[in-house]
TrEMBL record:
Keywords: Carbohydrate metabolism, Cellulose degradation, Glycoprotein, Glycosidase, Hydrolase, Polysaccharide degradation, Secreted, Signal
GO cellular component: extracellular region
EC number: 3.2.1.4
Reaction it catalyzes: Endohydrolysis of (1->4)-beta-D-glucosidic linkages in cellulose, lichenin and cereal beta-D-glucans
GO MF term list: carbohydrate binding; cellulase activity
Name of the protein in its database record: Endoglucanase
Recorded family membership: Belongs to the glycosyl hydrolase 9 (cellulase E) family.
Keyword hit for Iron-sulfur: no
UniProt-listed GO biological process terms: cellulose catabolic process
Active site as annotated: H418
Gene that produces this protein: LOC123431201
PANTHER family: ENDO-1,4-BETA-GLUCANASE
């Protein structure tokens, strides 16, 4: 046997240490990667004319005449899951949750360099909702027929099934879907307030009108529309959505009339009576209770609404305690591996929504210096986040099967997803049309892996015993949905930022470098000051005022101006397309300074956002 010298032993130790130091972190802790992938999933679900700069290249344009046969333009929006129906109810919920995620974790999304992509995901939905709201009391809430769509296995680009559109109106009300759409538009209006004030105003106008419609003409949409009965009927009714919509309008406007509406109807609509253990596209009670607890914890608990807000908080804490298994035995069930388990069908949507509420509520508590009070004892905010993290880790692969339930994340993930587009070769790979039955015969029943990886999709997840069968026919557990994906986006961004440093309540320290990517250093206020007609064309003079919003002098600024077709003053063009900087006479913006931009053009307004800035 060869003798090991001290020198050779030291060298061997150094090799081992070097290997250990370079060993990759487990995929389940790659929250930044998961955030990036979750946004890719929303791109893959887009309907309509796709932009040239998309990252999901196997998808093509689809459903370019939706609504035309009924005299309305309903092109755009999102396909719901593995099918090609545009269901307005869960789509609106997804947009609300994406927006809530941006509102709570905007800085974290900036740190991940993905805020603009999150805003694009929201806007793809809100642009569609604006189209769908054709009159004050008319909202188109579905495109496509679930029964005929499910009899076909074909790509979105090849669709041959009926694209019948369905609407609610004064004679056929649908308060739950209308109020949820109002919530989505109100939440997104607050998101866009600092980025595009004209668009935010448009969103808020529609949100207010749709909420009035939902409240004035009360009724269940699954009573009004036969097509809603089978696929997305509301078990909880519409009263939770009315509270939810009003709460979001209060959040977006600060108008106490909406808070008064919530307080007056809190008991009658079940907001302070229902103690729930789930939060979903259907049941909004836990979401309402957490959102209104934020008002209380932020110091808004004085005055006429204090007692009502405290009741909402009590019910919110019931939900929290039930999730983290400290509710005196009245807890949410878990699998042996520790995953929250609410329902057999697409349980992941409940995990996703619960994790979101746990995370934001923990931050609300931390910011107010409070703790969660459960029957089994007090819980610090950090403990709540730790539980939420354990759920996310399970989803990303830290589970008995070492299976990531996010497609494309890690080394082991579902490869037979119940999704038409993923399972059939792209239109760019197989140009010939794939018909309904051919799709079933050749691809649905195929044992081969998906030719298109549906990156970022959260499938339905394991059964109650941590088991999972990776089979395309297993639609209860292998199908992804918008409703499951949306809440997790913000949570991924939040957890990705947390390990960066310690110091504040979230354990996240903003980057020390002076260069910032994206963000909100300026609040843009957009007005039209003049309009005229020349040769039959309407022209508009736009004035955009950038008000200082970051608290530090801005020494460098790069703006992205999209959709500009006319002359512009007050900024200087750079060599990069659509990029503009300070004009030659401005070298910095102090805290009290404003940047004024004027441009003239026909048609819609240009979109102005901050691409980069430096503070000094």
């Amino acid at each position: 046997m060869a003798r090991l010298t001290i020198a050779s032993a030291a060298a061997a130790l150094l090799v081992l240490l070097a290997a250990a130091s370079t060993e990759a972190s487990p995929a389940w802790s790659d929250y930044a990667g998961a955030f990036d992938k979750s946004l890719q999933f929303f791109e893959a679900q887009r309907s309509g004319k796709l932009p040239a700069d998309r990252t999901v290249h196997w998808r093509g344009d689809s459903a370019l005449t939706d609504g035309f046969s009924q005299g309305v333009d309903l092109v755009g929006g999102y396909y719901d899951a593995g099918d090609h129906v545009k269901f307005g109810f869960p789509m609106a919920y997804a947009v609300t949750m994406l927006s809530w995620g941006v509102l709570e974790f905007e800085k974290e999304m900036v740190a991940a360099n993905s805020l603009n992509r999150a805003l694009d995901a929201i806007r793809w939905g809100t642009d569609y909702f604006i189209k769908a709201h054709t009159e004050p009391n008319t909202l188109w809430v579905q495109v496509g027929d679930g029964d005929s769509d499910h009899l076909c296995w074909e790509r979105a680009e090849d669709m041959s099934t009926p694209r019948t559109a369905s609407k609610i109106d004064a004679s056929r009300p649908g308060s739950e879907v209308a109020a949820e759409t109002a919530a989505a538009l109100a939440a997104s209006a607050k998101v866009f307030r600092h980025y595009d004030s004209m668009y935010a105003n448009q969103l808020l106008m529609h949100a207010k009108e749709i909420f009035i419609f939902a409240d004035t003409f009360r009724g269940r949409y699954d009573d009004s529309l036969q097509c809603a009965k089978k696929f997305y009927p509301s078990a909880s009714g519409y009263q939770d959505e009315l509270l939810w919509g009003a709460a979001w309008l209060y959040e977006a406007t600060g108008d106490e009339n909406y808070l008064d509406y919530v307080a007056r109807n809190a008991e009658g609509f079940g907001g302070t009576g229902w103690a729930v253990r789930e939060f979903s596209w259907d049941n909004k009670y836990a979401g309402v209770q957490v959102l209104l607890s934020k008002v209380l914890l932020a110091g808004g608990g004085d005055g006429d609404y204090a007692d009502t807000l405290k009741q909402f908080r009590a019910k919110a804490e019931f939900f929290m305690c039930a999730c983290i298994q400290k509710n005196g035995g009245n807890n949410v069930k878990t699998t042996p591996g520790g995953l929250l388990y609410v329902a057999d069908w697409n349980n992941m949507q409940y995990v996703s929504s619960s994790v979101f509420l746990l995370t934001v509520y923990a931050d609300y508590l931390a910011e107010s210096g409070d703790k969660l009070k459960c029957p089994d004892g007090e819980v610090a905010p950090a403990e709540i986040v730790a539980f939420a993290r354990s759920q996310v880790d399970y989803v990303l692969g830290k589970n008995p099967l070492s299976m990531s339930y996010m497609v494309g994340h890690g080394d082991k993930f579902p490869t037979h997803v119940h999704h038409r587009g993923a399972s059939i070769p792209s239109v760019y790979a197989v140009i010939d049309t794939v018909g309904c039955m051919e799709g079933f015969d050749a691809y649905y029943n195929s044992k081969g892996a998906d030719p298109n990886v549906l990156v970022g999709a959260l499938v339905g997840g394991p059964d109650g015993h941590d088991g999972f069968v990776d089979d395309r026919c297993n639609y209860q557990r292998a199908e992804p949905t918008l409703a499951a994906a949306a809440p997790m986006c913000g949570v991924f961004a939040r957890l990705a930022a947390e390990p960066a440093a310690a110091g504040n309540s979230r354990g996240y320290q903003p980057p020390q470098e002076s260069l910032h990517i994206g963000g909100t250093p300026l609040e843009f206020v957009h007005t039209v000051t003049n309009t005229w007609k020349t040769n039959g064309v309407d022209y508009y003079r736009h004035v955009v005022t950038g008000k200082h919003a970051c608290g530090h002098p801005i020494t460098y600024l790069k703006l992205r101006i999209e959709g500009l077709t006319g002359p512009i003053y007050g900024v200087s063009a750079t060599q990069e397309k659509e990029m503009y900087g300070f004009p030659s006479w401005v070298t910095r913006l102090d805290v009290d300074d404003k940047l004024t931009i004027v441009y003239i053009q026909e048609g819609p307004a240009a979109k102005i956002t901050v691409a980069e800035y430096k503070t000094g």
